Amino acid sequence: MPTKTTTPAPPAEAVAKDAHWAATRERLRNRTRPTVALTICDDLDLRVALETAKHTLRRIKAEADDRPDDKTGPAGIAAAEQGVADAQEAYDAASIVLRFQALPRLEFEALKKAHPATEEQAEDGHDLNIEMLGPELIAAASVDGMTVDDAREYLDTWSEAEASALFNAAWNVQEAARMDLGKG
After folding, report:
1. Buried residues in 51-77 as b, exposed as e (16+ CB within 10 A)
2. Global pTM?
């Protein structure tokens, strides 16, 4: 379940001057931290079928755009869209979805600080001991309740690419930004 941020009560003087700030502050208070999903599907045939169905839909839509007078276009598109929906349903049924949420910044900083690089890792230019940080970060960021022991087992036994994807899901959500800086 996504966790909300907490903030102190707004200053009474600011609210009195600008009622809009109270509403803005409430919206800021109720934001949830970023969350990402890592989808794992071990069935290569289902993954290929889904990508093929999506490619077919794109091709049929492009052909329909090239021939606007062709009356069969909408029916072909509808059939291809149903093919994508069916392939997606099969893919989703066979998949495992792991969800990760950004930690509060101070908690993330403390976790990093607790796992400094070893002397050898520092000589190689690393700031952190990823081997020790990885399982703890994954478990802390897991929305699904993955334990440190589970994370360590997966990192140690999965392929290099899959272990990296697991770690990167937990790490990258910490750096997710959902805002734009523009003209005011």
Report:
1. eebeebbeebeeebeeeeeeeebeebe
2. 0.78
How many Cβ atoms from other residues are within 10 Å of residue 178's Cβ? Answer: 9
Q: Which residues are 35's β-sheet partners?
A: 101
**Angle, vertex CA 118, rays to CA 117 and CA 119, nearest 5:** 115
Instruction: Show the beta-strand stretches assigned E in the chain.
Output: 35-40, 96-101
User: What length is written for the chain?
Assistant: 184
Contact status, residue 139 vs residue 146, Cβ threshold 8 Å: yes
How far is Cα 129 from Cα 61, in angstroms, rounded to an integer? Answer: 49
| DSSP symbol at 175 | G
Q: Where does the pLDDT of residue 135 fall: very low under 50, low under 70, confident under 90, or very high at 90 and above?
A: very high
Asked whether residue 120 carries a pLDDT value surpassing 80, the answer given is yes
